[in-house]
Amino acid sequence: MSAPLVLGIETSCDETGVALVRGHELLVDAVASSVDEHARFGGIIPEIASRAHLEAMVPTIERALTTAGVTLGDVDAVAVTAGPGLVGPLTIGAAAAKALAIGLDRPLYGVNHVIGHAVVDELVDGPFPERVLALVVSGGHSSLLRIDGTVHVTELGSTLDDAAGEAFDKVGRLLGLPYPGGPHIDRLARTGDPDAIRFPRGLTAPKDQAKHATDFSFSGLKTAVARWVEARQDAGEPVPLEDVAASFAAAVADVLTAKTIAACRREGVSTLVVGGGFSANSQLREMAAERCAAAGIELRIPPIRYCTDNGAMIAALGSAVVRRGMRPSPLDLPVDSSMPL
Ligand code: KG4
Ligand code: ZN
């Protein structure tokens, strides 16, 4: 008998994602994005995102079904992001998922978006070993997770202030780059000198009051970049954008990879999964590849389209939850904008 067909719905931010997964196989991943509608505001406007999800939901579900060559009747279970995320957008995804679950008389599974960013890797690189560490880095989160049996998650650390992508976007704004600044800084950094400016690495000194050994902090680094740039401007000197970008990106990648690899060693884990939109970052990818190779750690980073928000991550996690026979969610499943792991 073939594995259950799971339809996954993701609407936590500005991407409407609908995907179909059977076992570890991705049948289709349909995404509609409202990112362009937010660009002129320099950040996501929740009301605009909610309206866009509402308009895109039914066409995206239809597109996913047609592309996969299945009908709604073939769907065995419905998975949806229950949080964390923007409450309006989450509510629209949950309403669609509940309507499908009720209409089709199929179980509903509310799942955690952050865990989905890691588990989507199973669709690309195959089933997880019994225990993996996952670094989930995006505009909304920077978390280090230990994952046992694909679905049991322990948070080993997270950011105490800005997420990695958020710090890039804020530094992008202060350098006068368009929103979101992350990819622009990455592009500039490629031609800059990462050793030109020694920016601080947050939360690395023993006196730092982190909750966990692998907590991160990027707001001090962001302030250090702002001060450095202001000092140059006050002195009437040009700001070497490429060097600032490269040195800033190096500081972020250094902290993320050093702490993550130390955690792998501490936990005795030999597989690291990196997910979330920020895993597109070149310096993070390069440093993680080098340092994992040196430490004998297998590094799994899915292709970028599965690192940014999408339905495949939710369908993958839903499929794992269904496979393990976990209990479905109630049909009045609440959404939780700050859902814990
Ligand atoms: O996962 P994602 O698409 O949305 C969130 O859930 O946040 O992540 C987007 C974040 C943004 O902050 C964006 O600037 C950042 O990831 N980002 C990058 C790069 N590509 C995307 N930051 C640095 N370098 C990149 N190449
Ligand atoms: Zn995300």
From TrEMBL:
Residues 26-315 form the Gcp-like domain. Fe cation binds at residues 113, 117, 309. It is found in: Cytoplasm. It comes from the Bacteria. GO terms for biological process: tRNA threonylcarbamoyladenosine modification. It catalyses: L-threonylcarbamoyladenylate + adenosine(37) in tRNA = N(6)-L-threonylcarbamoyladenosine(37) in tRNA + AMP + H(+). Substrate binds at residues 136-140, 169, 182, 186, 281. Its EC number is 2.3.1.234. GO terms for molecular function: iron ion binding; tRNA N(6)-L-threonylcarbamoyladenine synthase activity. It is an enzyme of class 2 (transferase). Keywords: Acyltransferase, Cytoplasm, Iron, Metal-binding, Transferase, tRNA processing. Its cofactor is Fe(2+). The keyword Endoplasmic reticulum does not apply. Binds 1 Fe(2+) ion per subunit. Coiled coil: none annotated. GO terms for cellular component: cytoplasm. SUPFAM superfamilies: Actin-like ATPase domain. Belongs to the KAE1 / TsaD family. Required for the formation of a threonylcarbamoyl group on adenosine at position 37 (t(6)A37) in tRNAs that read codons beginning with adenine. Is involved in the transfer of the threonylcarbamoyl moiety of threonylcarbamoyl-AMP (TC-AMP) to the N6 group of A37, together with TsaE and TsaB. TsaD likely plays a direct catalytic role in this reaction. This is tRNA N6-adenosine threonylcarbamoyltransferase. It comes from Cellulomonas oligotrophica.
